[in-house]
Target: Phenylalanine--tRNA ligase alpha subunit
Amino acid sequence: LAQDCASRKGQACSLKELEELRIEFLGRKGKLAQIMGRLGKLDNADKPAAGKKANEVKQAVTDLLDSWEAALQSAEADQALSRFDPSMPGRKPWAGSLHPVTLVMEEIASILVGLGFDHVAGPEVENDWHNFEALNMPPDHPARDMQDTLYVSDKIVLRTHTSGMQIRSMLAGKPPLAVIAPGKVYRRDSDLTHTPMFHQIEGLLVDRNVSMGDLRGTLTVFVRKVFGPKTEVRFRPSFFPFTEPSAEVDISCAVCGGKGELDGKPCRVCKGTGWVEILGCGMIDPNVFKSVGYDPEVYTGFAFGLGVERVAMLKYGIDDLRMFFENDVRFLEQFA
Ligand code: PHE
Model:
């Protein structure tokens, strides 16, 4: 083994083989120890010279093994270096990214700002008057049951919708008005398709001679900017206390292309109908104008409220609302 290692200049000798050699020559029962053991039997006169020689041999063997080991280690390092390609692009550290709800909210807001709406923000802790009463929902109005309210105290609620911002905006300004108010809303509701907190974007436009046609046109343009020019839009009659007439807007499902099925199965997002509801809207009810001191004989307007998570689910083909709130990095990093 020693000869073999020597002939290969230590290069092909493994570290394990070197260790075996070290034990064979320098170990407690190794060759050198045996020779040292016999020194005692020599004539006293010969002992110093023989002892000196034995130590020299030990040092020489040690040096040889050490140099082989160093050569071996540097050969291994060279090999590792030859596998290293300094021209490879570096790996970027994960630096976080915007949440898909934020991305969609910013995209929608920028489209509506492009259409001339101003961006406003208001409180999530709201009083009963802005959230309900001024929106044509007096204290015992049955429509209050449409929304499961989280109460902070008797007259203070976590806003159940962003519609209170219609009131705040009309009180803060005067027509012509065009505002959007994105933000968090809260409801006592939690199941597969509802979370106690979610996001809405409110839109409000007030001027003279605003018609249902303006509402339809604005929302159709808006929806096609978000989901693509081929998106179909459907207005269904509905009811909200603060709009008259009211409508809910469905769009053709962006996940299955409105076909209702995906790979031979009912589409998981639109449940096979080909349509998904994305917002509620309508013409401002005269009673709402009265509560902010606007003359309903002079002004007309429209409002709409849109669910941001719903839009994000459609846009990205996500079928489980909980994904947005679990904050699993494997989910979030896909939106980087
Ligand atoms: N605020 C309503 C909701 O939360 C949506 C809506 C807004 C409807 C504006 C009409 C006008 O469901």
Summary: Residues 28 and 34 are 9 Å apart (CA to CA). Residues 161, 163, 240, 243, 280-282, 303-305 surround phenylalanine (CB under 6 Å). The mean pLDDT is 91. DSSP finds twelve helices and twelve strands in the chain.
